[in-house]
Amino acid sequence: MKINGTHYRSIWPIGQDAFGIIDQTRLPHEFVTLTIRTAEQAAHAITSMQTRGAPLIGAVGAYGLALAVRGDASDDAIQKMVEMLAHTRPTAINLKWALWRMRGALLNQPRDKRAALAWKEAALIADEDVAMSQAIGKNGLAIIRDLAARKKRKLNILTHCNAGWLATVDYGTALAPIYLAHDAGIDLHVWVDETRPRNQGASLTAFELGSHGVAHTILADNAGGHYMQHGQVDMVIVGTDRVTANGDVANKIGTYLKALAAKDNGVPFYVALPSSTIDWTIADGADIPIEERSQDEVLKMPGRLPDGSVTVVEIAAPGSGAANPGFDVTPARLVTGLITERGTCAATPEGLRGLFPEE
Ligand code: MRU
Question: Counting C-beta atoms within 10 Å of the first and last residue's C-beta, which end of the chain has fewer, N or C?
């Protein structure tokens, strides 16, 4: 993805002993990159949300482990680092998927080869994520093209949170088809849910779409249902942090309410995901661990002052507490289709197994 004419991925290797990320807590007001040199710094970047989005934290976890292996490549150290990194965020399965894959690639190998192997495997995970996002884009484009041909007017697509290139290594999941449709000349406009409490929609998705020249409007989270009732949403596309074997979908808090409103109004509700987001070990969404985050995210809000400085303000009465579940589960019955790198399927066990028979 291009920022001011320069191509960026959201994570990049620096030699073989560091990697770079974009500090997403500073966007959209400042574009700042960070150099990560240790697994502990990688863990901090994930917990502090400097880096975020299910596929991206998988790649960050993989590179973080690769950094640790340079210092100590013993079985014991690898096991401890995998556990430390896996605990940084509980809901997105991509993180564990990447760490378990790294561990599997390393443990049976000679110790003196593990550091180089780990770096290679992390790079492979990142490159594969880019390829999966590109394929998701193409598969989602077919759906948008079909809808545009039927509607014969500008399409309005609603999305929640940020499932663009900032949440993956490049291109995105939910936003990849939107970028391709825009590039193909399909007339479209995106409703961007602000996505309280952390505002990933307002601060990240709007930033991405604006940088790519895609027409968009930020909505308060509560407004989407209203626009659906008035025929102003043709389709919803969101990303996901974990899909269970029956097609239930965990995604950023508030996704479920959008799916309910979409169902009530006959608006197709699609979920875009790479196969690294599917948790085949869980039968349904009730067993997905939901991250409970700091109440400060609800009680306070960051923003830019007229003098250009960025600050945090309190928005609630002093003394009030807040609850802050990071994700919710949308039942499969509310999902029109799952857009994956292998194609689009029904959100059912049969649909998923049809695309991924080896699982
Ligand atoms: O808490 P976040 O910002 O990491 O949550 C991100 C989301 O919920 C995204 O929709 C999801 O990771 C899909 S990313 C392509």
Answer: C
